[in-house]
Amino acid sequence: MAPAGPPYPLTFDFLVDDPEVARRFEETVRPVHTVLVALAELQEIPGFAVTAVVADDFVAAVQDAINRSDEDGPEEAFTVERIGGLVAAKNVALMQDYSNVRIVFDPTPWRTENPVALAHAIYLAAHELAHVLFGRLRWISGALGRSGVSLRDSNRAGTQHRADRR
Predict the structure, then answer these.
(1) pTM of structure
(2) How high is the pLDDT of residue 155?
């Protein structure tokens, strides 16, 4: 009998023209994912699959992820503008229980090898991947999907990181 495979798989979609951006992105996200998986295992959080996406056309990639989600009903067009800055990454739960999540990242922090940009990229990856754990925990607790709070409302309410892209 073959092993079941990792309970917390991570896959990548590189929707960028620059292979260096893709390389830096994977080299940042993969170790952050490893740390968060260790936390998930310690807390016995049920498995989840993450697809990390870095996209030159960030808005289109987020809209595509929203269109793939299992939430019914009309969705307004995604925009990056928020009070206090621009969205730099977006979690989209493809399943209401957060067992399958697509996280789309704007490539800006990975376009340079500047140490400050790298620090921001690590923070951004950790922040977004932590939302997957929080989503799973909210589902397990019954606070998400079973309380009348829709997945779309939850996604709109707090799973967007705001950051100035200069």
Answers:
(1) 0.82
(2) 44
